[in-house]
Prior knowledge:
By secondary structure, the chain is an all-alpha fold. The chain has a domain at 99-323: Orthogonal Bundle (ABC transporter involved in vitamin B12 uptake, BtuC), CATH 1.10.3470.10. Helices cover 78% and strands 0% of the residues. The protein has 13 helices and no strands. It has helices at 6-52, 60-72, 80-113, 125-138, 145-166, 179-205, 208-219, 227-254, 258-263, 268-290, 296-308, 313-338, 346-369. Helix 2 (60-72) crosses helix 3 (80-113). It is globular.
Amino acid sequence: MSLKTPVALSGMAAKTAPKGLKVIGQRRERLGLSRTAVLAAAVLLLFSVSVLLGSYTVTIPDFFTIVYNHLTGGQKIPGASFIVMENKLPRAVIGTMIGLAFGLAGALFQTMLRNPLASPDVIGISYGASAAAVTAIIVFGASGAVVSGAALVGALAVAALIYAISAGGALGGTSRGNAAGNRLVLAGVGIAAALHAVVNFLMTRADIRTAADALVWLNGSLNSANWDRAGVLFLALLVLLPAVAGIAGPLRMLELGDDAAAGLGVKVNASRLALVIIAVTLAAVATAAAGPVSFVAFLAGPIARRYTGKASLPASALVGALIVLAADYFAANVAPELLDGTVLPVGVITGALGAPFLLWLLVTANRKDA
Length: 370
């Protein structure tokens, strides 16, 4: 029987510890992938429920018949073809895509800045879209694609302004801790407050009918969903999703902090600028398609992180789609039964979810600090 010296024992521990950590990491990776797959299945299920069920029920065989006849120019089923192809299906498609876009945008901001409050609807980007769209509706009498275009331009312009203001300090070079993130969030919150006042002023100056149209847009709604908007949104995501995949590596490094990321060879300022541009564009195209559906970007990232056990862009995107689809189904089918036929915009439901979740985040954060 031989006795091993402390040096020998420490050497053995050094050899065995990485293997144990590797096994734990692999288990967490498999768990995260399996839970992401569950989220994908849930999105598919909820998408099917949105199209097949509700105020007008469609059987699965009838659905495929309707779609096939629509694509091939075959005989249409009176009433059913219009409801499915011009209402239910484009509504579900746009709801899924804006949920993916908002979820990704929120997760990119929150991960990059290491701040759960850093989502587009909190730091003012959505307010930029809202102010521009309301100006187009009330001042210029615009509607349809013009309002969507104004919202897109407004979101991008406000994002550029927020970045320029925050770049005067922490974003102008590598920073310690959360200085960069806090500076950007504070700049966004200040601009959001100013834009909120602009929107309120315009609403008070509008006539009742125009104000009602603007209010519906401000709450975020899928009632005006159509294939034209779905096509534009699909093309935008076709460009943006590969860009998100390409920037995911530097994002993981930035999550460690600016100094650590710079030490690992990441160009901090260039990477952050690219991430901001991609995240803002995702939020802007989603807002242009359906209005500022509140709190989806804010909710998706933290929920996905708690469910999968880690920060995950695919899981955040899927959670965003789940939130929008579930909220829209409730607003279009359940709320009218409870409110004497009143159909609510989807943004009203997501807003009702976001407020208590924000309070819950604050409470749990205070418990951790204690």
